[in-house]
Amino acid sequence: MRSPYELKSEIEARLKGYLSRDRDGIRRELLSLFVRVKSLTIPQIYMKLQEQFSISYHSVASMVGIIASRIGILHVRRNADGTNTVYELKDQYVDVVANILGTT
């Protein structure tokens, strides 16, 4: 079992790698949305990102899925009625994401 420090270090490394492949700033903006708002659905994210970038709904859903599953900083809350899933930035990673966005 990893210690909390090791886990945060691993998350930082994953985030830095994820952002290193961000050519047009979409990933950075997506993460900053989660830092500012904390709890979002795919349609909400898509509407915000579409204001600044030419991006498809599917691309937004893919990016959020990667952040939730591979990086592991999002909590996924599904509604019982099957409507939009709510994604929330986990409290313990808000400062980590904010620091990385500020330094990279």
Q: What does this molecule look like?
A:
This protein is mostly helical and 104 residues long. A 3-stranded antiparallel beta sheet has the order 1-3-2. A hairpin with an 8-residue loop joins strand 2 and strand 3. Helix 3 packs across helix 4. The model has no long low-confidence stretch (mean pLDDT 91).
Uncertain runs are: none
Distance between the termini: 29 Å
- Work out the helicity level: 55-70%
Q: Give a count of the beta strands, DSSP E runs of length 2 or more.
A: 3
SS class = mainly alpha
Categorize the overall geometry: globular
The average pLDDT value, as a whole number, equals 91
User: How would you sum up the major sheet?
Assistant: 3 strands, antiparallel
Summarize the structure.
With 104 residues, this protein is mostly helical. Helix content is 62%, strand content 11%.
Question: Which structural traits does this protein have?
Answer:
104 residues; mainly alpha; 3-stranded antiparallel β-sheet; 11% strand; globular
Task: Please give the structural blueprint.
Elements: H1 4-20, H2 26-37, E1 39-41, H3 42-52, H4 57-71, E2 74-77, E3 86-89, H5 94-103
Antiparallel strand pairs: 1-3, 2-3
Helix pairs in contact: 2-5, 3-4
